[in-house]
Write a structure and sequence with these properties.
single chain, 302 residues, alpha/beta, 2 domains, two-stranded antiparallel sheet, disordered N terminus
């Protein structure tokens, strides 16, 4: 079975293959590249350009999350996000949004607010600001801008609080000449908007630039059996989710949104956790539980 990037999902990584196509927006690839020590200078420079945090402060920050799970099949959905802690008072969460799904940004915002509450000391003057960097492989807001910044503000533009900021890097707009962005951010966006390609082609394309740090890390990763298993798992996982979504959309289109959601949920019940089914369908916990109970009863009767 082949994934979105064109790689064979049962790829044998015991020997390096020149034909392996590396997609930097694959969840395994993205997290491994962003958290790597070898790419830290590039990443901290980009984050500094995107935020008010000085680069010398950003370089002292702590990167956590994104580790390759020891047992992928047993830890499905348990790979943590990349979190950058800055001076114990700022937290940056970096998300790769490869394909849009319903409720995606609601889920991300809910996660951010939960983190903000857990990190803050109620009754003290210390509150942690959280910035979420969304690297978007789609243009959900139909904008020409390469960067969108969202704050909590009123109709006159007054910002209520600086505790939450959501930044979207719209990858397809990285080279729009109408907007001025830093060269580092533009290069970063250009690299991650790449279609799946061989390591050899990436090395030729970036041989004279700072993005070579990502290419060198990608080459190292592509020779690791552990990473390739993780990569292929994510390709399969992403492909299955979209198959479920598109099949349910087709089968449910005559019955409206609710029926479409039910069709999607039915197809996901056997293999996916409740949280992911909710993300794609917007069904309540009770509705999904009822569907699961009915599904189990039908399977027992067979």
């Amino acid at each position: 079975m082949a994934g979105k990037g064109g790689n064979t999902l049962n790829y044998n990584a015991t020997t390096f293959s020149e034909e392996f196509l590396f997609d930097p927006m694959n969840d395994a690839a993205f997290k491994s590249l962003i958290r790597a020590e070898e790419t830290r200078d590039v990443v901290t420079g980009v984050l500094s350009d995107l935020t008010p945090i000085p680069e010398e402060v950003m370089k002292e920050s702590q990167f956590t999350g994104g580790e390759v799970p020891k047992d992928i099949l047993k830890e499905k959905g348990m790979v943590s996000d990349i979190v950058v802690r800055v001076q114990d008072k700022n937290k940056i969460i970096i998300e790769a949004n490869r394909q849009y799904s319903e409720n995606m940004f609601d889920k991300n915002a809910s996660y951010v607010f939960k983190n903000s509450y857990m990190e803050s000391n109620v009754g003290s003057n210390l509150y942690h600001s959280i910035i979420i960097i969304n690297v978007d492989g789609f243009n959900h807001f139909h904008t020409e801008k390469p960067i969108l910044i969202f704050n909590i503000r009123d109709e006159d533009g007054h910002v209520e609080t600086e505790l939450y900021t959501s930044i979207h890097l719209v990858l397809e707009n990285f080279d729009n000449p109408k907007y001025t962005i830093s060269e580092r951010v533009r290069n970063f966006m250009e690299f991650f908007q790449n279609k799946p390609d061989t390591i050899a082609n990436l090395k030729e394309k970036y041989k004279d630039g700072e993005m070579m740090a990502f290419v060198n890390k990608a080459e190292e990763l592509s020779k690791s059996t552990e990473f390739i298993n993780y990569y292929n798992y994510e390709e399969n996982h992403e492909s299955e989710k979209m198959d479920f979504y598109n099949t349910g959309k087709h089968e449910g289109k005559l019955e409206g949104q609710q029926q479409r959601s039910i069709e999607i949920a039915k197809k996901m019940l056997e293999k996916y956790p409740l949280e992911e089914i909710q993300e794609l369908t917007e069904l309540s916990t009770e509705e999904i539980s009822n569907l699961k109970e009915s599904f189990n009863m039908t399977r027992e009767e067979k």
